[in-house]
Each structure stands twice: as structure tokens, then as C-alpha cells.
Write a structure and sequence with these properties.
Number of domains: 1
CATH superfamily: Class I glutamine amidotransferase (GATase) domain
CATH class: Alpha Beta
Order of helices and strands: EHEEEEEHHEHEHEEEHHE
Number of helices: 7
Shape: globular
Structural class: alpha/beta
Strand content: 15-25%
Radius of gyration: 15 Å
Number of strands: 12
Distance between the termini: 23 Å
Length: 191
């Protein structure tokens, strides 16, 4: 199984590295990938990443947020407005086993039409915007809706990572990772 976490200028660091740490610690193959071309990406707080791969060869995709709530010039809001990332996600969805999001990355999945008439969550400050995409918002840290798994704000990315580990490797593996990072994971509520 190959997991890609898509990164873009203005992405929130914790949205990326929370799930990255958890799924990689479990031994899953995970890579940070760019939207369109390899190269440098500057995060929301100025961390520069050299991203060698491009979104497109994944069994599972994690979409982080950042910059949505304040309508930043770079970040999830800007990616939705440009339309390239939502289009790429929509094109990949039929061949991916699952697509997931952290925080306002859920709004990018929604902008791609991938959460319509589904149960999902996002940053609580964006619940109304998510509902506008015809999504049933569930106020939980992680919402597992089959081939779509969404997480709330920031630290919920750890819970998302643990849920993915549980789905792919079992509850015992997720429990080992949670114990290793000394994190009491919130249970996901399956559909």
C-alpha cells in the first residue's frame, strides 16, 4: 500500500506531519507529494520542504489543510480556488482505496465533489462551509465513511493516522503506535 500526503504552499505543518509520523511509524509506505511538479514547498509557518514526488500513484491519499479560515493567499483556500488539486483528487478517487483529510483539507475533498451526501468532519470553525457542499457534518475527531476518512483540526491528524493504521494493519498495530507516541487515540465511528 502506498500513501501520499499532498503538500502545497501554505499547508499547515501539523496537518501533514501528525499523520505522516503515525503511518510511517507503523511501517506503511508514505510519501509527501506536490500537486503538479516536484520542488520546493513553503508551509504556513515558513518551513521549506523539497518535495520529490507528484500526486498520482497512491492507494490512499491524505489531504491536509491550512490557510482556509483566513482566506490566505497560499493554502487550502487558494488550492480550492485554483481548482487543480480538487480536479486531481476527483480524477484519482475511483482508483484509490480511500481518500482522507485533516482539518480544512476536508473542504478540498468537498470541493472535488468527494464528500457530497457523505458524513465528514473538518475544523469546527468551517462546519457551515462544509455543510454548504451537501455534507452531513459530524462533530467528531475522526469520521470514517468507508472510502472517505476525515479528521477535525490539527491534532486530529494523529487520530486519523491511527485510524488508517487500524484499517490497514489492525487494531493491535494501531495500539502499538499509540503507545509508542504516548497518545490516547479517540475511537473512530464507522459508518
Amino acid at each position: 500500500m502506498r500513501i501520499e500526503i499532498v503538500v502545497f504552499d501554505g499547508v499547515d505543518e501539523l496537518d501533514v506531519f501528525g499523520p505522516f509520523e503515525v503511518v510511517s511509524m507503523a511501517g506503511l509506505d508514505v510519501e509527501l507529494v506536490a500537486v503538479e511538479r516536484p520542488g520546493p514547498v513553503t508551509t504556513m509557518r515558513g518551513v521549506r520542504l523539497d518535495v520529490p514526488g507528484v500526486l498520482g500513484r497512491a492507494d490512499g491519499v491524505i489531504v491536509p489543510g491550512g490557510g482556509w479560515l483566513n482566506r490566505a493567499a497560499e493554502g487550502a483556500w487558494a488550492q480550492a480556488r485554483r481548482g487543480v488539486l480538487p480536479a486531481r483528487l476527483a480524477a484519482m478517487a475511483p482508483s484509490a482505496r480511500w481518500m482522507a483529510s485533516v482539518c480544512t483539507g476536508g473542504l478540498l475533498l468537498a470541493a472535488a465533489g468527494l464528500l457530497t451526501r457523505r458524513r465528514a468532519t473538518t475544523n469546527r470553525n468551517a462546519y457551515e462551509e462544509l455543510r454548504a457542499y451537501d455534507v452531513t457534518v459530524v462533530e467528531e475527531r475522526v469520521v470514517d465513511d468507508g472510502d472517505r476518512v476525515t479528521a477535525g483540526a490539527l491534532t486530529s491528524g494523529l487520530d486519523l493516522g491511527l485510524r488508517i493504521v487500524e484499517r490497514e494493519l489492525g487494531a493491535a498495530a494501531a495500539g502499538r503506535v499509540a503507545a509508542t507516541i504516548e497518545y490516547p487515540a479517540a475511537p473512530a465511528r464507522p459508518r
